[in-house]
């Protein structure tokens, strides 16, 4: 028999799972996973996107978010996974969320994914034009975030941005 937590995770995943439109994903769960590194480096595109998201939040009278390297490292693993599969998805989101709950003190975890954008402004605009992505960006109780952007062999950018509440 499946536990209520498992059922809630599956329901949340099915409710928010993405197609090519890649809607954002949320999770409020607690499960153990591996340890996350505290060290990260940011590309110019990643740094610009972090600044743009915070600027947008401040314009909307929302608190700015603190960058947390642990989140970016978890996001990076997922971005590389999407590139390896050639599919933009929220696959294995429960594991990422559980990892951040265990290792970064997250109480709430959400993520936005995207692909194909060439600038930070364009990916932010894409997310803001999607009600589910915009809702995640505008969630007032988020405290920290991280980002990962990588290019596949054809130069197409993949993005994973994760938000948490501590």
How would you describe this structure in keywords?
166 residues; alpha+beta; 5-stranded mixed β-sheet; 18% strand
Low-confidence stretches: 1-36
- Overall pLDDT, averaged? 83
Rg, Å, rounded: 15 Å
Question: How would you write the strand order of the largest sheet?
Answer: 1-3-5-4-2
**H and E order:** HEHEHHEHHEE
Q: Give the biggest beta sheet.
A: 5 strands, mixed
Compute the separation of the termini in Å. 32 Å
Helix-residue proportion: 40-55%
Shape: globular
- Secondary structural class: alpha+beta
Number of strands: 5
Strand proportion:
15-25%
Total number of helical segments? 6
Condensed summary:
This protein has 166 residues and is of the alpha+beta class.
Topology readout:
Elements: H1 4-16, E1 25-27, H2 44-59, E2 66-67, H3 69-85, H4 93-104, E3 108-115, H5 120-128, H6 131-137, E4 144-151, E5 157-165
Parallel strand pairs: 2-4
Antiparallel strand pairs: 1-3, 3-5, 4-5
Helix pairs in contact: 2-5, 3-4
Outline the structure in words.
This protein is α+β, with helices and mostly antiparallel strands and 166 residues long. The chain has six helices and five strands; from the N terminus they run H-E-H-E-H-H-E-H-H-E-E. It has a five-stranded mixed β-sheet, sandwiched between helices. The termini are far apart.
């Amino acid at each position: 028999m499946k536990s209520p937590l498992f059922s809630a995770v599956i329901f949340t995943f099915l409710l928010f799972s993405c197609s090519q439109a890649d809607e954002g994903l949320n999770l409020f769960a607690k499960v153990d996973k591996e340890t996350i590194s505290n060290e990260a480096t940011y590309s110019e595109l990643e740094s610009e996107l972090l600044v743009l998201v915070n600027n947008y939040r401040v314009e909307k009278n929302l608190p700015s978010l603190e960058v947390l390297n642990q989140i970016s490292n978890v996001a990076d693993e997922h971005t590389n996974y999407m590139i390896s599969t050639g599919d933009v998805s929220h696959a294995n989101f429960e594991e990422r969320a559980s990892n951040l709950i265990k290792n970064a003190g997250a109480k709430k975890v959400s993520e936005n994914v995207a692909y194909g954008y060439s600038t930070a402004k364009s990916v932010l605009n894409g997310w803001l034009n999607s009600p589910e992505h915009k809702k995640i960006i505008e969630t007032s109780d988020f405290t920290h975030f991280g980002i990962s952007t990588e290019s596949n062999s054809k130069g197409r950018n993949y993005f994973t941005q994760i938000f948490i509440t501590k």
